[in-house]
Amino acid sequence: MNFAATIKDNSGHLFALFYGLFFGTVFLQSGLDKVFNFQDNLGWLTGHFEKSPLAKLVPQMVGTITIVELVAGALSLIGGVLAILSKDHSFIALAWVMDCVALLMLFFGQRIAKDYAGAATIAAYFVVAILGIFAL
How far apart are CA 126 and CA 99, in angstroms? Predict the structure, then answer.
């Protein structure tokens, strides 16, 4: 069997792998940055949301999104690796849901804060995440 045929025969598993690696990197980096630079992130987000209805909830929001991002990132990474090694797409399916939840949370926050450029960036990630359904 040639390389192109191998790729074609495993395209769904490869898509799941690359999807998992991409969102594993995105969310683990973001979540770990919030863990290791919590005060910096809290300060920036407090200013970002100071004129929004969510201003008083920033510390809770940072804690919640940190957990969601870390879970989404870990599930993505594990799911991508399992998809290629064991052909099991269970974790990547769960990761897809968590990735979409995390992105919707971030998108909601950006829209409430009236950061439309930031919301547009998150929308682009969301389009990529929606493509993850095809890995299932």
Answer: 8
